[in-house]
Amino acid sequence: MRKSHKSEIFHSAEEALTNASEILSAALQTAYQSAENPVSTQSPVIMGLAQLIENAQALVDAVLERNFPTDPSGE
């Protein structure tokens, strides 16, 4: 019988959310750079994608701040 080995890509929720935040940040930068292309006819679509990325980033940031505050005293 073969044992199933679970591969963990993160060790904690905070680590996963931090990594997701970094990925979203890179995606947002890529979207902005792509939208700045003066010959692109897709700039409005790309800016729409950038808005979706910003919304996802805001959700991740809110969860990180609520569950893993940088200042535990709340000050």
TrEMBL record:
UniProt-listed Pfam families: DUF6124
Superkingdom assignment: Bacteria
Protein name in the entry: DUF3077 domain-containing protein
Annotated source species: Pseudomonas fluorescens
